[in-house]
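Render this sequence as a predicted structure.
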Amino acid sequence: MAKTPLLEVRDADFSYGPLQVLFDVSIAVREGERVALLGTNGAGKSTLLRLASGLARPSRGSVWFDGQDITALSAPERVKLGLVQVNGGKSTFPSLTVHENLRIGAYTFIRDEARISERIDEVVAMFPVLGDRFDQPAGTLSGGEQQMVALGRAVVAGPRLVIIDELSLGLAPIVMEKILELIDVWIERGVTLLIVEQSLDVACAICERAYFMEKGEVRFSGSTTDLVHRRDLVRSVFFGDDEVVA
């Protein structure tokens, strides 16, 4: 019998007012998997992540986590289960210091100072530059450093599943290299990853399986290797219409 997926979205529809943006969308992510969510601009990828993390609710369909129907659970309740989302770009509380931003990740165990200190020390070991910026307002950091803070906050939370929207968005290669090191740590620990990504190279380097969305529907589900060879899907998105996909 197949193991129950850690995250499952079943037959989801979603609308912003009269505008429907998701149509009968289903995805499943098994524990320990690394899954990319790819697609055209406006395909509904970020909306689907919002449904998964509890920032929105489907107008039809359901969301399941480790065999439990969590459709009605709030985002904070989902964090307590181990489901954490990181938004791309400058996903920080800009007026709070780096240290305060990191501590927010520990709100489900906020009185356990020893645990919090251990997790924050771990973040600083991964991203030493944050140790030098501890007392700076996060809004004064570069975009790459702010992304490190956002990912560090997820590390502090101790997640089972990390959802990342636009992992490499606007990041310099040297920053991306540090973030990929964190991804490797999560992989070693068996943390499950669902990543929205615009770079096919990054998606293939991290993930073994992918979903491809277009116009609010899932058009492809399979290995990232197979997706690379689906020229009809990826050419115009990742390579431009005139470029040949190897």
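Summary. Strands lie at 7-16, 19-29, 34-39, 60-65, 68-69, 83-87, 161-165, 192-196, 209-214, 217-223. The chain has two domains: 1-82+161-167+193-246, 85-158.
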